[in-house]
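Predict structure. Input: Amino acid ABC transporter substrate-binding protein, PAAT family, 251 residues.
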Amino acid sequence: MKKALLILTSLTLLASAAQARTWDDIKKSGTIKIATEGAFPPFNILKGKELTGFEVELANALAKQMGLKVQWVTQPFDNLLIGLNQDRYDFVIASHGITPERQKAVDFSNPHYCTGGAIVTKPGGPMTAAALKGKKVAVQVGTTYLENVRKVPGVGDVKTFPKDTDAQAALMAGRTDAWVGDKFTGLDLVKAQKGKVVQGDLLFKERIAMAVKKGNASLLKELNSQLAKAMSNGTYAKISTGYFGQDIRCK
Ligand code: ARG
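Output follows.
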């Protein structure tokens, strides 16, 4: 009995003492483990078996600069930061806006792009925050869109979906009056649905960054320096222009 208790205690101690891999550990292993959602086009999207998108290409380029192989992991958006704190991967790149709430749980790199949350609706629908009064709005769960839409005075039903693309589909099917999502994603939707939807106001702005486990300073430093390098050697501009026709770095 006593022995079992001892084993249990030491196991608990071991688990809580588990450490994120430092930059040195990662470099020695030759492979970096990166997590994303894979359902947030055009930033991270699993197309059949191929994981692609602006953030996937950017992270692959950073890893290449580091001389490392990449092992990608995909997780539902809402689980990404939890898995990071359980040491399941080294960092997350999944369009997380830097928020005070998230900063309590993880450490963020310098931003890899700047954007905002915008309203998309059918022609004649609500285009401004004021017009969202009493309206049904679709958003992805666990996002800054949810947080910010909830703050709109008098907003009607806020419906959450596990995936952003499901929230868009709810608007298209007429189950909600609006969808709030990333402004670049919204532009793509407007283009793809020619004339069926329009983009309204930007509700808020945000800086998007990669996340490491809280306290993993050595990896954070490496990511920041590789990002700066990609931003100065033309790599970042090339990938960004390829996806958006413009450079979306924070100005
Ligand atoms: N930028 C928003 C946020 O910070 C949405 C991110 C959603 N990302 C995703 N991979 N679905 O919450």
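The two ends are 62 Å apart (CA to CA).
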